Amino acid sequence: MTSLLSKLSLPLLQLLFLLLSFSTTGRAEDNITINVLSLMYSPDVQEVEVDSLNAGFEASLTARGWKTNSKARVSFIRPPSYDTPVAEFFESVVKESEGKLMIVFGPFGGPNTMWVKGELSKHGAVSFGPLAFSTEVREWDPHLYFISVEPNAELLALFRYAVVFLGLPRVGITYLKGTPSGEALYEFALDISSMMGHELCGAFAAAGGVGADEDALAAEWNQFVETRPQAVLLFAPVRNPATEWFIGRIVKDERARQMYVLAPSTSQGPLIRTWRDALYASNVSLNDGQLIITGTIPPSNLLTLASVRRFREEMDNHLKSNSEWGGFSKPPHFSTDEAISDLMMTGWLTGEILSQALHSTDVLTDRTAFMDSLYRQRRYVVDDLVVGDYGNECGEFASMQGAMCNCNQGGSAVYMKEVVDGFRMYPVINGFLMWGVSQCSSANVKVYAPLYGVFILIVDSYITERSARRWYEGASSVPADGSFENDRLFFHPFRRKLSEVAGDLAQLVDNRIVSAVFGGVTRDALRLPNVTFINPLAASPIVGKFRRNVLLLSPTVRQQLYVIAMHLSNASTGAVSAAIRSKRAEVIGDVLNKSLMTFDVALKSMLLLKESDTLVDHLPSSGDVVAIGLTPPDAHAIAQYLQSRNDRRVYVLFSEVAQLYDEFVEAFNATPAAVVSASRLVFATNLPHWADKNTESDTVAMFHAYNPRESTWTPLRLRGFATARLLRSIVPRMKRISPSLLVDFFYTESNIRVDDMHYGPYSDVECVKGRVTAANRCETNFGAGNISVWSMSRVLDPRVPVLSRGVTPSLEYAVMDGSSLSPSQLAGIIVGSVFFVALAIALCVLLCLFVFNSRDNNRAPREPTDPVTLIFTDIESSTAQWSTHPELMPDAVLAHHTMIRSLIMQYGCYEVKTVGDSFMIACRSTSTAVELASDIQRSFLQHCWGTTVFDDFYRNSEMQKAEDDDHYIPPSARLDPEVYRQLWNGLRVRIGIHTGLCDIRHDEVTKGYDYYGRTPNMAARTESVTNGGQVLLTYAAYMSLSTEERDQLDATSLGPVALRGVPEPIVMYQLNAVPGRAFAGLRLDRDFSFEESEDPTSTSASEHSSTHMELSGSAQTISDALHSLLSTFKPPQRERLLVPYCERWNVSLPRRKGRVWDDAYCEEVIRRIAVKVGHIAEHGARGMSASSGVTTQSGSSLIIISCNPYLSDASPKQCSRVPVSSGREVNNGMTENDAN
């Protein structure tokens, strides 16, 4: 037995020692007491608010038995009275806490926080959750452990909400002037407003102190309210007398009674009490949502959060079990007063953070060690709330790797609520602002101007409302990238009846920020000024004129009909009929007719129906039909029509199919026969298939990813998705956003590509001075391309191929070939007079010249991914030269053309177009373009013009300008004659060069290549600011040269130059093609035009008003002759014959109302030619009369060039000029026009 005991004694002793050690440790932990003293009180704060904060803090610790995870006990020490001075109470607890860990809960208020900073540092203590609405205490200090965000973050959130979600353009601010905190908040507000592109409309600077001068306040108020503020940022202490007066005045003054009041969390209780008193005093009711208040913790009634639900449960239990808090009238009092409940949750969350901070045992007896543990990249997770990261001092390299340095602020979210009936408060989810734990504060959060989009829901038009709603569902499914810098696209619904849309939208634009309008629109709404519409949905098809502010992304009616006509021409279906139901059926019918005629498709019949007519009753019994103006019943009617006629096809607009998508899918899926007939319902679209699971489209793949339910895969949702993708790609590139800036972006960029969707080219360049004659080369506000032809079968099954591959329609309505003449037309020409025969010969010669100079397309840059260098040229003061020297200009311009064309061929470049005396040239290489431009200037300098009249003209013009402008220095007029001859000679040409990517298209009418987009616009604008004899290169063109080429180039930087229509100045370089030349300042005041109108002798005014003036005798003779000659031609043939004359005589074409020349347009062109040539003929007649000293019986002379020295063996001098006279004689040998 003894031996057995001896064997067991050693293990028993070891076990005994082990148990004793555990017991000792446990008792030691239980003996650790942590003193937490509450400084969360202030004599300036109501007792119920202080109680709420302290009760919430206690509720958190009570739920844990007043112990930490390490079993240490927490002793919560509250002041004996809220009237006890903070310093006195603090000192008493410091003495009691010697040798213990001491933590401060609070303090409350800026002054108390500023005082306690020094004391905390002296005693090595930490303050948890101080509440101080002051920017001064927010500096890095490890002794202050902030749970909430800083005041600037609340200001940022409120201003953002006012602009982004309320859409208010006029926001003011109230702040406490003369204090560092107030002035800092005001400066921060100015910075925010500037960053968001919406400046503060006014400020009410409240003075501190007890007394307030009523007169001074009234003057300040009147000045503030005259700015018509729609909201005010209330960032002055509510308890300040001036602020209380300000709040009362808002309620009393009718001008401000509807103004939103946006206040920070610390103003919540005082603001509600003051507002309630002001309403009572003025006998005014509360406006729901007028008061908007931020919070640094989630609203305590936001029950979707687990943290809020747990808070309410623990708070409820604490109030039930603690009689000390009987002032809250027992639960659920805290649930019916959100202001009190929010304060409780603030205290509760601080208790939760403290409990987690006290988790580690080894730091609970040393204040320094405990404080250090708080900043070890500390993050707290309370259910679904995250507080932190907190970090101590660290180096830049650690910060670059993600460490949080010098951060004692854990809040990363601002919450928001609105005050409603009964002064209850409800969360405003849109107002929440969160930036995550990667940033210590909101200092680096950037919030730029939003794109505030209004989408219209027309409530009394079911189809239009459904379409707009589906578009919005697709657009809103595009996710943001999570950054405030880029998350700037917002859509807001606007519900109105059809008759109310235009009027109410106009009022909305006057009172709200509206960047762009989407959804359903009316024709009247589209006429509103200063409103940007993006791809609007119309209740019925619209064929409208160019509107710069209407940006279209989907194929227009014109484009759809053009592509359908192109398909019909290849389908060999014979003649087609049309049935159009619309208020503007005639306009749509005209577009359809022109499209069909362009592709030689016969139109058998066209029925223009009223909106009340039934479409299906008017479908033809034979042949294919184009049906426009569909309603929901038409889908089933068309399906039945196709099933009963197996050899028919119906062509419709896809824009109508998209809006009636459900009806068409249901109708053509109803029976097997209906499915078969779907192959004969045809339309044109540029969308990829929205329901193709095996899609190759990036856009559709993303659309499916963010809209996984197949029932949502519809064309309008995909259109909305693609539109939002486009806008989200645009917004980050715009620091400021407004309707005009948004429109400018589209026309400046011209071509925009997002994923696999391409939009453009957009162009706002007007058709000027005969520059272009094709409809699509002028102003273009539609950007859809790659439009293919589908059948309804492909809609039902994405595997069905398209009927015609995608094309981008040129919209060139070339009805007939100008060379095909009927026998009757030839007979009409033959029976003409000898004069008419001579004129016809001249026309033929010019047509031959046109053919002779046809372009070599092999020289054209054709690769869309390669940059193209474009050159634009124009003769300086050409119109004035034509008027002053009409007898010399034809030969001079001919020499001008010959020299430039010869150099174009020499350098292997491509003549894109030549209109009048203006050239557009495309080169593959920038260095080639630079050499070509230099040689053009040198060739003109070396050419023998045979006269000095052009030089005299330019010098006289300079001298005249010098007399009118004392600051103007003539660049050439005062040069020594010998020096002048070395630098200047003859006509002066302006040249502009730009390099970039282009939208390259082959023109089916001219059989050549043309270049669209931002690059040609920039090149043309560059040329427009250039002086005669000068060559300008844009920065892009200059930098596209190699370093070696730039080193060898003689060029001078002119610095940034502002061009019309270009948002940012462009750096320009002057190519010194002729060294020594000096130039006047750039022509920055000139519009983008080839026409010179500054000279008083310019005839442009008469040309543009020829319809409204009487023709002179000479002009009338010319007009009669052209009418007689061309009367047997159709308008398209007349266009072919008249355009060369416009080019030859530098006649500007009038602005078109349609896409093609009609009889009225031809009449106007003939009148312009007659006015221009008649004026020149009369000038020549006067010259001959003056030189001969005799009286002429002619009032005018028409000069007809009967031969061309560059096409025949004749010399220029041998080319005859045949005068034709008319008019009556007046005194002294003057004609009637001369006398006038």
From TrEMBL:
Keywords: ATP-binding, cAMP biosynthesis, Glycoprotein, Lyase, Magnesium, Membrane, Metal-binding, Nucleotide-binding, Receptor, Signal, Transmembrane, Transmembrane helix. InterPro entries: A/G_cyclase, Adenylyl/Guanylyl_Cyclase_3/4, GRESAG4.1/3_peripasmic_1, GRESAG4.1/3_peripasmic_2, Nucleotide_cyclase, Peripla_BP_I. One of its GO terms (cellular component) is membrane. It is found in: Membrane. Its EC number is 4.6.1.1. Residues 1091-1113, 1217-1236 are annotated as: Disordered. PANTHER family: ADENYLATE CYCLASE, TERMINAL-DIFFERENTIATION SPECIFIC (PTHR43081:SF1), ADENYLATE CYCLASE, TERMINAL-DIFFERENTIATION SPECIFIC-RELATED (PTHR43081). This is adenylate cyclase. It comes from Trypanosoma brucei brucei (strain 927/4 GUTat10.1).
